[in-house]
Amino acid sequence: MQIYLPIAEVSVNIFLILGMGGGVGFLSGLFGVGGGFLMTPLLIFIGIPPAVAVGTEANQIVASSISGVLAHWKRGNVDIKMGVALLIGGVIGSSLGVWLFTLLRELGQIDLVIKLSYVVFLGIIGSLMFAESLRALLRSKNKTPPKRKQHYWIHGLPFKMRFKRSKVYISVLLPVGVGLLVGVLSAIMGVGGGFVMVPAMIYLLGMPTSVVVGTSLFQIIFVTANVTVLQSVNNYAVDVVLATLLLLGAVIGAQFGARAGAKLGGEQLRILLALMVIGVCVKIGLDLTLEPSDLYAIVKAGGH
Amino acid sequence: MKINKHLSGFVALSAAFALLTITPSPKAAEGYIDIDLSKPEVELTASFDGAELLLFGIHNPGTDVIIVVRGPGISTPVRKKDRVAGIWVNSDEVVFKNAPTFYATASTAPPAEILPQKILNQYEIGVKNINLDIESKSAGAETKPFVDGLIRNMNRSGLYSSEVLEINKVGRQLFRTNLWFPSNVSVGDYTVDTHLVKDGNIINSKKTHIVVHKVGIEADIYNFAHDYSLFYGLLAIVIAVISGWSANAVFRRGG
Is the ipTM of this complex over 0.90? Predict the structure, then answer.
């Protein structure tokens, strides 16, 4: 069954969109990532104009993150204090990111920068996570006790705060900084930023995996809501029909994902996420390096 | 759907036969041509998945007919990719001013066989003869490959047809052809130019219009998004919040 999307101005198959929403929603609930880094490229692949894919995806992530965060909230897995600190950075960062986005678009290189950011960030994070999880798995098999947390220079930063839920005592500058960096990335790459946020929280902030997912989702809700409004006002790039179809699939998928995640171990989850991140990285990397089928392309205007 | 299409074709042909009965006197008939469409508009509804229009008409026996359909023109940038350090990056750019968003031709005979190149250029008959003005371009960029690139890309998305569609002659004076508008057509005013060809010359032309527009809920959403973009964005968030919340509530009760 075909449906014509009023803002994207293309006709798509309803069940394809619902299925994509469900599949990505499941992964989103499982890993606590918004799923934008999968969905945005998928939407562009099926013919949605890139600007609309980015704007609409932000709107859909709001819904799937709310659905996901509630499931985690019930289990007490959301650190609000940490979330707010991340959010402060996130708002500053995404504003900075929008400014950068505009600048790069004027230079005509936004596509390249988006793809390179995907390859670099997904590549680094994917391999780090994969290596780390593999080591952890081997360690647990050999029954050697885990190493004590090391002391880096970051633990010497001022404005230390106690985050009870996360069981850490760190400088508030750290979560604000992480939020800021992810905010910039999410504005440029058109994603919620969970795939950067989650590992940063684990490895940089030293938060326990159980709290990470819920807190990341909590923060993503507000950043993507902000992006939705900005995209609507600046680019008219949010398609509510497309978003509603995606989120219908996604909210349901996210519920199943969150349940499946509770059954799987943290290390297995990390390995799976790492493999997925590496997969997307390789795909985009190939797009950049293989000769395109047509060297000439029409540049679709961003919005109107 | 199929029945409907046939029915509309039948109705249109009946209308054409009605036209036939009021054929003008032989004197006025020199270079006579008249056309009509099964529908003067393409409505982009929620279930829109492309549309077929029947274009039919009447012409002097012994003449040929060429039809050119053009969508609204917009500024269209075309970029070329070059390999830099193993990565394909955008390099040169040519921006075409008023490139048509849709282009199709139909003819009773191959246009190149019945008209000289000069006239094909003048009337912009055939994708290769579209008059593409250049708005701006990168220094040193050669235009020709960009023109070819534009046409190739538009062809691929189904918006240009390089091949000339066939016009079917019905009897001595009637002709008909089907125009296909894919689901990615732009909204706006489309022009349909019908040329009557005899002895290597265009002896008469008729212009008509097709309006492509959004209707119903599609139009409402589009207009709301453009006229009240802030409220539209906020509403999109409200929808997202409600869906996320209710999905969770449903699942909590169920499990």
Answer: no
